[in-house]
Amino acid sequence: MKKTIKDVKLEGKKVLIRVDFNVPMKNGVITNDNRIVQALPTIKYAIDNNAKVILFSHLGRVKTEEDKANNSLAPVAKRLEELLGQKVKFVAATRGKELEDAINNMKEKEVVMFENTRFEDVEGKKESGNNPELGAYWASLGDVFVNDAFGTAHRAHASNVGIASNIKGEAVAGFLMEKEIKFIGDAVDNPVRPFVAILGGAKVSDKISVIENLLNKADKILICGAMAYTFYKAQGWEVGTSKCEDDFVEFAKGLLAKANGKIVLPCDTVVADKFPEDGVEVKTATVASNAIPADMMGLDVGPETIKLFAKELDGAKTVVWNGPAGVFEVEAFAKGTNEICKVLSELKGATTIIGGGDSASAAIKLGYEKKFTHISTGGGASLEYLEGKVLPGVACINDK
How far is CA 146 from the centre of its chain? Predict the structure, then answer.
């Protein structure tokens, strides 16, 4: 069990909170503020307990000076101010006198946010390389460290592991981090059975360790998305022009043998004569999964697969879903993903968890956000959790 923000005294303390405000933006405007909203309970708790709240996050990829222009956290601070209903002082620096003065002059309940931690990557990847001097410097700015950024928990950065290793006070989990650890950790290590995993997405190679780990833990693994075609080929089926990892066909064959019936593949597939692009008409058909025409490609699961998956999910008590069933960004091939959302939303008495990434985006886009027990904010982190890996950003939090 990890210590949480509730286990430490906050009154009058300078509380450093690593949040995950890596939100999508277009022309300086936030297009989805879900990650900011998810962090509000931790921030409000610190304010209500008379802390001096210092927030920081990464945003986007910053490799050059030019990258800084489009990746400032200033618009995020403005949106947070609106959501909190109180002033958020933004400091456009990651270190130095301006930042130190802003923090040292804080009163209880005030909030300061400093600039994108990845700005420190321009000269020598100090943030993402967990530079010891940078971690120690950021730790020196506060009394308590709260890690609430599950999205970066699979990486040892200066802003999580670096601070936790150097903070004089406690390093604890925020409410969002606590929730992620509870739901995903419990689902994998201590699931209420039957436990069914749904794995989709493009590549078997991305999910090798996940499948291997879950074969020992799940009662059934339902495979969908483009990764299914590698499994089709492993059974000697024609896959046409579908996305398929030839290098992993033998591996998929071995997994099917080892699975002993635990792996369930789609029984029908929606195919098209070409990949859909704007303004280009495509010819589509629904065929049996073992009868894909040689000149067509699979882009979604068909209606019979949804019936099959619904049957496999009937009575499930724990479900983890990672990866969409098809090219959900295109309406014609979003039906499989949409129907999986619908089936899961109607399960009675089940804990349903989406492991971040594209499946989370799909569920939110399709309007099922409130229908799941938990939607993870960290695609890469939840994937590594499902692999059974130790996450550095979780390991660095003090144990109870």
Answer: 19
pTM above 0.70, yes or no: yes
Please identify which of the residues 44, 203, 342, 371 carries the catalytic annotation: 203
Catalytic residue check, 380? yes
Contact 310, 343 (CB under 8 A): yes
What does the alpha-carbon distance between residue 224 and residue 324 come to, in Å, rounded to a whole number?
A: 7
35 as an active site residue: the answer is yes
Q: Which of 60, 129, 169, 380 is catalytic?
A: 380
* Count of C-beta atoms within a 10 Å radius of residue 294: 8
Check for a shared fold between 5-178 and 191-386.
Answer: yes
Distance separating alpha carbons of residues 311 and 187, to the nearest angstrom? 21
What pLDDT score was predicted for residue 366? 81
Catalytic-residue membership of 357: yes
Contact 158, 130 (CB under 8 A): yes
**Confidence at residue 56, expressed as pLDDT on a 0 to 100 scale:** 98
Sign of CA dihedral 30, 31, 35, 36: positive
Per-residue pLDDT at 279: 67
Catalytic residue, from 355, 357, 378, 393: name it. Answer: 357
Please tell me which residue in 14, 18, 35, 217 is annotated as part of the active site.
35
In the CATH scheme, what is the homologous superfamily, with its name and number, of domain 191-386? Phosphoglycerate kinase, N-terminal domain (3.40.50.1260)
Residues of the chain with pLDDT under 50: none
CATH class of 5-178: alpha beta
**CA atoms 208, 384, 226, 341: torsion sign:** positive
